[in-house]
Amino acid sequence: MERLGPVGPDEAAHSLCIAVSGGGDSMALALLARRWRRNVLALVVDHALRPESAEEAALTCQRLAALDIPSRQLTLGPLKPGGMQQRAREARFEILEAACVEAGGSVLLVAHHEADQEETLWMRQERGSGARGLCGMAARTVRGRITLLRPLLGIRPERLRETLRQAGVVWCEDPSNQNRRFRRVEVRQDLTDDERREMHDIRRQACAEQQDTEQRLAAHVASCVAWQPEGWLKLTTDALLSSLGDELLGRLIRLVGGQDYVPERQAVSALRQAGTGSLGRTCLAPLRGREAGWMLYREARNLEEKISARHGQCWDGRWRYIGPDRPDAVIAALGPHRREGRGIPACVLPALPALWAGDELLAVPEGVRGLPPGLPRVAFVWDGGAPLTGERDWSG
């Protein structure tokens, strides 16, 4: 754990949180964390996709209690149809992040181990991933408001289960982990020892390459990209012309679009070469007027999300409301609105958050330009998830 850097004080008000599914890997992580720290909190997610899932989550909480590990059972709300696995992953992280912050923590431990890393690298290599993907899972990653730590990436799963046996700890086995209909299960069962060693060599080489890219990209961003308080960007004429153009544009799209992942490299490259178009919920267009360069902004589509105006709510993966609770209001897109002055392009306004009561506009974010000064203002802050650079340790 010391190799992963600081995790904060061992105090009751700042519990170290652990994502626990009830399987052998996460139960071993919880046991090891409890031996290391006094103030820990296990977060057990019930996906509510099967009738028995709530009972299984409750059983895991009971087993943790027997190990003197406090826990919280979290239940996911109904998921929208389509892409169920991806939606479940996103919802799981959101509920884990919120529970971690509520508990006063800023660090979440997850139980990926060495074999998980090898399988992930093999599958990414099959898909033709570049150096960034072939760096594999990071031991330390900043995501949203918390840091994810994976302290077991150098540990074999067999050692974790033997640790549980020695301690007399019971765990659950997921039958799907033996189902060869899933590509990961095939890879897990078929990888040879030589192939697993090869994956570690590939990862070390990729990490060295990516670390160099990260340093050059940070300098490039500082000289070529200007952040705007309404959540859009100005890019100089040189920003997309360098060898880092595709890498830079992909990360900027993820940031401005409030996405978890960078779009496919081929799509990013095509957009950069075109110099105009939309991708990943964003639009790229030449700057207007006398300014040279490009602008990148959130497109005015797929903005139907409406959520209760409660303190701490994140809207559209980009803006977090930090004003007081407003039971009479919802957070929704500002939509088409008359611009005053030329402080910002009119195309930026529709994707801004606002407080609404039915069809009545109640308030807009503080610090936003281009709107009538008489409109009531409320506090929003940008919270677009992963940073442009420095989101993880690329040292390998």
From TrEMBL:
Xref: Gene3D superfamilies: HUPs
Enzyme class, UniProt record, top EC level: ligase
Segments passing through the bilayer: none
Keywords: ATP-binding, Cytoplasm, Ligase, Nucleotide-binding, tRNA processing
InterPro entries named among the record's database cross-references: Rossmann-like_a/b/a_fold, TilS/TtcA_N, tRNA_Ile_lys_synt, tRNA_Ile_lys_synt_N
Known EC number: 6.3.4.19
Record's comment describing the protein's domains: The N-terminal region contains the highly conserved SGGXDS motif, predicted to be a P-loop motif involved in ATP binding.
Similarity comment: Belongs to the tRNA(Ile)-lysidine synthase family.
Task performed by this protein: Ligates lysine onto the cytidine present at position 34 of the AUA codon-specific tRNA(Ile) that contains the anticodon CAU, in an ATP-dependent manner. Cytidine is converted to lysidine, thus changing the amino acid specificity of the tRNA from methionine to isoleucine.
Protein name, as recorded: tRNA(Ile)-lysidine synthase
Name of the gene encoding the protein in the UniProt record: tilS
